[in-house]
Design goal:
The structure is a homodimer of 238-residue chains. Chain A has eleven helices and no strands. With 238 residues, the first copy, chain A, is an all-alpha fold. The radius of gyration of chain A is 18 Å and the shape is globular. Chains A and B meet through helix 7 and helix 11 of A and helix 7 and helix 11 of B. Chains A, B: Pfam families: TENA_THI-4. Chains A, B: It is an enzyme of class 1 (oxidoreductase). Chains A, B: Belongs to the PqqC family.
């Protein structure tokens, strides 16, 4: 495929598989969830947020050039902060705080759905074990994220009296960080996927990433929406 | 804990978390599923069955003595066969054949639920990465399996005209293999978990294993029972 056709094939995966199409997200944005269900979402997604710098650090450790490492170090700073400005993980905890979840409980991961843990761990291991090209390609779900973030923030602010601009502080910086991440990663992937086999590996990596985001919402939906089947040991709303 | 109290603590985990308590299993045994739902179960569980010898081989490669390796080599033979008698993986394919699933499709894993893949892969990696003691402890769900197998075989034969003794041939040898596996593994774990910390690690390993069996049924339940939310790309019954 020519680079533009390859980019179109990558974008088509989002149309088919990105979790913006999952019913849990519609419920979340449309104000159809109760506070306990939003708590369950924030609690579980904390593990995803907290694992992002771990996967980025494992990729950083394998990148061969100064330019690549500098770009990926910026991602780590976005998520871990710099000691003065809070990073994404800290801002996510502002959300779980604002929802009334005990921070020690959140960070302990005791209430996590096993489905969340297995999906997130699969991502960290994928990035650790696959080629640098596939690892970078798997980050390209950010191509689709500004749209979902805009919908989510607007919908949640409008529909829930238990969230505020302050508790949703995680999302605003992502609207500028994600396009910057994508500009670099998409350019890298288009330049380095120079055979049909490498292009297919990148498409598979992006499908895999969509699947694991989707699976996280599947686990939440089953446990906390319908049929409400909470696995033994997982968070039980008060 | 004294060895007997430790064994009781291990068994108590089964009472709380073993997937015999999952509603999907009740539906399966009680004849409440249609053929397509049983197909989905057999198709997904194939990946678990096919991964068992991979996890056993990775443990075998780390075992330090002839006795231990011989015991674990027997498990590999149970699952992979010896070239004349079929092993467990082959017998599982007799089930998917009998249910009318195309064997190439099953083996390709194309229709797998992402939740199945992530849970099974988590098991293989756990066994590869954790201590030998934790890896062996994670096998102890077999303590609870003869009961579920008896219920499953009796219930399925009675309730479904599309299964037979021949298509359920996987299960019968497990009724003798599993107790043999357990006798060895439980004795090993009781002798080697000689500190509170090691005992707790074994209990955690068994909880982890129960969670991943449970998560596989969660994924099946959400996709094929209620609310019937099949993830993009997964098996869609004809």
């Amino acid at each position: 495929m020519a680079p533009d056709a390859f980019e179109a094939a990558l974008r088509a995966i989002g149309d088919e598989r990105y979790h913006i199409h999952h019913p849990f997200h519609h419920l979340l944005h449309d104000g159809k969830l109760c506070k306990a269900q939003v708590q369950a979402w924030a609690l579980n997604r904390y593990y995803y947020q907290a694992s992002i710098p771990a996967k980025d650090a494992s990729l950083l450790a394998r990148l061969p050039t100064t330019d690549l490492r500098r770009e990926w170090r910026r991602r780590l700073e976005d998520h871990d902060g710099d000691g003065s400005a809070p990073g994404g993980v800290e801002r996510w905890l502002a959300l779980t705080d604002g929802l009334g979840l005990d921070r020690d409980y959140v960070v302990s991961l005791r209430g996590l759905l096993p489905g969340t843990r297995f999906a997130v761990d699969a991502y960290v291991r994928f990035v650790r074990e696959r080629s640098v090209l596939e690892a970078i390609a798997s980050s390209l779900t950010e191509m689709f994220s500004t749209n979902i973030i805009r919908l989510r923030v607007a919908g949640m602010l409008q529909n829930y009296d238990f969230v505020s601009e302050a508790t949703l502080a995680y999302f605003k910086p992502r609207l500028t960080q994600a396009p910057q991440d994508v500009a670099f990663a998409l350019d890298y992937v288009k330049r380095h996927a120079d055979t049909a086999e490498k292009q297919e590996a990148c498409l598979d990596a992006l499908r895999f990433k969509c699947d694991l985001l989707w699976a996280q919402l599947d686990a939440l939906h089953l446990a906390y929406v319908e049929p409400g089947l909470i696995p033994p040991g997982a968070f039980v709303p008060a």
